[in-house]
Amino acid sequence: MVQIINTLDPAHEVDTHDAEAVNKAENRSLYASRAAIHPKSVHGTFRRLKWILLVVLLGIYYIAPWLRWDRPGDAPDQAILIDLANRRFYFFFIEIWPQEFYYVAGLLIMAGVGLFLVTSLFGRAWCGYACPQTVWTDLYIWVESKIEGDRNARIRLDAAPWSAGKLLKRGSTMLVWLLIAIATGGFWVFYFADAPTLLRELVTGQAASVAYFTIAILTATTFTFAGFMREQVCTYMCPWPRIQGAMLDEESLIVTYNAWRGEPRMAGRKKAEAQGLKVGDCVDCNACVAVCPMGIDIRDGNQLECINCALCIDACDAVMEKIGKPKGLINYTTSSLYAANVAGKNEHWNWRHLLRPRTAIYFTMWAGVGIAMLVTLLNRTQLDVNVVPDRNPLYVTLSDGAIRNGYTVKILNKRQEERTFRLTVENLPGASMEMVGEQGQKGTSFDIRVAPDKLKAVKIYVTTSDPGVIVSDRVNFDFRVEELNPNGQAETAAYDAIFHAPAKKE
For position 504, what pLDDT does the model report? Predict the structure, then answer.
């Protein structure tokens, strides 16, 4: 350890050893340059699983904006659309309005609790298989290997001086990376506008500047994170590696090197056995290190950088198969099973390890939110009513002594068809209504036609000419809205309003 020397103290004498330590400390950088990691290609169960998930997830991302769904009226015929301009979210037959944002909040809660559940069961499975950083990095590494070669070829290319061949390979790799990054940013904006229309506008230069800016930002981040930063994003930028420690317990499945079986490791296994030395199953081939996208050695134990991608399991199993040893020297296991095997109990994992209080609580929370959202969604009405009273003035006393209040009644038709509703005043004796813009129309009810998937606001004056019903300066009554001539069951809604009047004199 470098000694800290108080150079301000004249009484302190610096010997030669201390001076050398100080010089070394002054010349030492606080930051280490990133060492490029070139993972070796590997074949096996977990690599196939990662390829399947990569194709499925990227397929969903790139195809979903182009799925069509017939919608009447002005709404775009897009199955999945976040329409910020009209404050609407479409998901096939489901339409979410701004006042129904609690559905989005519920989905976010389910995603968070679901991540806790998956982590408590299978460790950092999200990081290893489904995280966008992992998916796009895998794609970039695949492109790199196809153009520049596998691990050893890429290492040699790194060390080689710049030449026409090296420039061609690196340039081709980065060109494909850039095209993938542009597609990533471009397809993201298609979720926020009608995809075919926006594509034409982007190509012809007629799209809004925010669309080009968003594509540029996502292109730059994808190109940089997946192409150059890779494991640094997971280790230094993402907070989840540090949070996930609180989600794990002794029964969580994590990728583990079984040192109780592999140690002492030795490369010259046959020679050591011939000499009567005790050796473990690990032949110290470093295959697990060569395939790791994080550049770590799983044999050093559970580490912050490990994303539980399990590629080291595939690499080690292939080696074990070659030397005639059982697979599973590196495998998914739990801390409790590892401790049991160290104690010589030879226990194995089974599905009962999934059932424990922590996972039961997470699953109950996740399922509870999901069921509540589903029940609410299935029972929600396609009619919503809101009433905004006039505030200035609260009431008007007419020349004949009648009292009038003004209201803006907003009727929301959530269906994809035009509907007619009857607006009625209830629980206010002697009251009549007048609709602004409808000259001469007065009464206790009005029929209002609302276009498909639209909100209609009407200005209503409510007047009572019977002062006897006004017992205080605030009288509760109801606006009732009832659907007329429905195709199915008629929907009704009521809004509790307040009628303001002069305060009664004592």
Answer: 65
Instruction: Note if the bond before 264 is cis, omega within 30 degrees.
Output: yes
Token pair 């998930």: residue:
53
417: CB partners within 8 A, 6+ apart = 72, 452, 487
C-alpha separations of 408 from 100, 387, 389, 437 in Å: 21, 6, 6, 13
Residue type for 259, please? A
SS3 390: coil
For residue 380, which of 342, 336, 419, 412 has the smallest C-alpha distance?
412
CA distances from residue 342 to 258, 263, 321, 347, 432 in whole angstroms, order as listed: 9, 12, 23, 10, 86
Q: What is the pLDDT of residues 389-413, one digit of tens each?
A: 998 888 888 888 788 899 999 998 8
- Which residues make Cβ contacts (< 8 Å) with residue 211, sequence separation at least 6? 189, 193, 198, 201, 202
The average pLDDT across 53-80 equals 89
Give the pLDDT confidence score for residue 470 in this predicted structure: 67
The DSSP bridge partners found for residue 94 are 91
CA 107 from chain centre, in angstroms, equals: 10
Q: How many other C-beta atoms lie within 10 A of the C-beta of residue 123? A: 25
Among 290, 289, 304, 293, residue whose Cα is nearest residue 235 = 304
pTM: predicted TM-score of the whole model, two decimal places? 0.79
d(CA 245, CA 254): 12
Third-level CATH fold of 383-500: Immunoglobulin-like (2.60.40)
What does the chain come to in residues?
A: 506
- Cα separation, 301 vs 262, whole angstroms: 13
Provide the residue ranges of all domains of the chain, joining segments of one domain with +. Answer: 29-247, 383-500
User: What pLDDT is stored for residue 59 in this prediction?
Assistant: 94
Among candidate residues 458, 454, 460, 459, the one with its CA nearest the CA of residue 412: 454
- Please count the other Cβ atoms lying within 10 Å of the Cβ belonging to residue 346: 8
- Helix, strand or coil, per DSSP, at residue 397: strand
Angstrom distance (rounded) from CA 420 to CA 485: 8
User: In the structure encoding, which two tokens stand for residue 448, read together?
Assistant: 């209002």
Tokens matching residue 30:
């606080």
CA distance 338 to 332: 10
Lowest mean pLDDT: which of 32-36, 90-94, 124-128, 464-468?
A: 464-468
Confidence check: pLDDT of 428 > 90: no
Dihedral, CA of residue 171, residue 172, residue 174 and residue 178, to nearest 10? 130
pLDDT band per the 50, 70, 90 thresholds, residue 27: low
CB atoms within 10 A of CB 286: 14
Q: Is the dihedral of CA 426, 431, 435, 438 positive or negative?
A: positive
Which residue intervals of 205-258 are DSSP H helices? 209-224, 231-232, 240-243
- For residue 11, the model assigns a pLDDT of 46
- Which residue type occupies 455? L
Helix (H, G, I), strand (E, B) or coil at 251: coil
Q: Using the 8-state DSSP alphabet, how is residue 392 labeled?
A: S
